[in-house]
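Q: Convert this sequence to structure tokens.
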Amino acid sequence: MALTLEQLNAASSAEALQLLDGLYEHSPWIAEQALAQRPFRSLAHLQHAMAQAVRTAGTEAQLALIRAHPELAGKAMVAQNLTAESTNEQSKAGLTQCTPEEFDRIQALNTAYNQRFGFPFILAVRGPRGTGLPKREIIDTFARRLDNHPEFELAEALRNIHRIAEIRLNDKFAAEPLLGNDVWDWQEKLAEHSDPGFAEKGQLTVTYLTDAHRACAQRISHWMRDCGFDEVEIDAVGNVVGRYHPATEGARYLITGSHYDTVRNGGKYDGRLGIFVPMACVRELHRAGRRLPFGIEVVGFAEEEGQRYKATFLGSGALIGDFNPAWLDQKDVDGVTMRAAMQHAGLCIDDIPKLQRDPAHYLGFIEVHIEQGPVLNELDLPLGVVTSINGSVRFLCEMIGTASHAGTTPMDRRRDAAVAVAELALYVEQRAAQDGDSVGTIGQLQVPAGSINVVPGRCQFSLDLRAPTDAQRDALVSDVKEQLAKIAARRGLRYTLEESMRAAAAPSAPAWQHHWERAVDTLGVPVFHMPSGAGHDAMKLHEIMPQAMLFVRGLNSGISHNPLESTTNNDIQLAVDAFTQVLRQLAEEQQP
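A:
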């Protein structure tokens, strides 16, 4: 008989502790501390309470928790001394049926890991879908994490322990994240399409209007029809658009979505999560035979990443009338113009101006997106409410000094361009940190024709500065420019500075941000506010209508634009539930 929250909330302290036995390996103190927060509003509320108990317990207690876990395919498994929960997990991952070679490899990794960190390797072997990781992925993850910094690896071990507890909690309460599973599966299936040169390596790359890109569009459009959308089309720039009609003809629409193109060798969730979450919500409305006082328009934007052509946000830009005809003459690395690619794909270029949306027909725009950063992961939080998408400025720069012999030029006679840029990089790091949520990066730095025995006479570098408001960004830019001038003058150097991109900040509309806040709180999850350091399609829609975003925690320290990008079925389920809550709020507002 499955446990219920009502039973847990009503039980005595001793009974409740017994009901939660086995969630954390040989560590009942975690459940005991968490139970002080009863009544729990949801399983997510309970799980967060337990994670916080671990978070505030101190390093010694955390290490004891980690050491209470058995090694993967280790002595305890061989001796059949694992708890029932660990036996189930290692069995589902196939670790009880290792070949001799696999067993030897895992044993060697266990030894190396313990020597380096002093505690056993912890991995949620049932994985982000809860069905078990392949042995090859387990072994590869084991080997990769051996290179982590000890402090980071301790935190990563705890994060995996929380995921193990989350899956065990699902089992106790018979709580299967069905919609989270469906969205997760859609993303996995869509990732079967990848561009040539990457597909053969098992890497995901989908760039604008390639065969893989067009296959993705077709698959998304078919799934939209299966979900019950009333209208589905691939528009003149390749956006996949699904419309679910309102209860009353002529009512306005909520617009949502994200992009389905990827960076080269990227991840499966960037952008695509924001297409499939609302699709799942529409499917549930259709299954229930429900219409809302407003329509829902879900857009899979064809291009956001600027990988094949330098026309970033092409898909969402077209919806606000921001499609530059000059882009049509851009060529990819094979010399194929965008115009030719669009014609080959059967898109009608003359219809692009017709894609512009009239904001009077829409309530606003919301977007769900994987965080693409470590913050939620580090805080053990599944969701984050975005306060603003950072404004940014980028520069292409060059520091110019004098190339000279590395052996014969005294240190006080040098005009070293590279050292000057290094000094600037340290300043950018310090200055951005003063604001707390500003960021600054010198991501490219090269010495043209550099030599091991020559003092660099030139150094080319990039400069990327971002902040949640334009005023904060501009103050950062001003200070960095001033420091650049001082460094160059003090060192007797010249420099060039060319602005290559400027994007305005996109603060969330307060009322729409509040919708996300209420939705997250309803789920029993703490409401956490954060800016978005990355750009998103919401930035473009922000120019003509109110917008707000919801972030979903990523695994592997939130890494994105990387094959390790991932999230869990539970976190996706929470995103679907939060989106559903926003739909309910809007429906109540729109009632006559």
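The chain has a mean pLDDT of 95.
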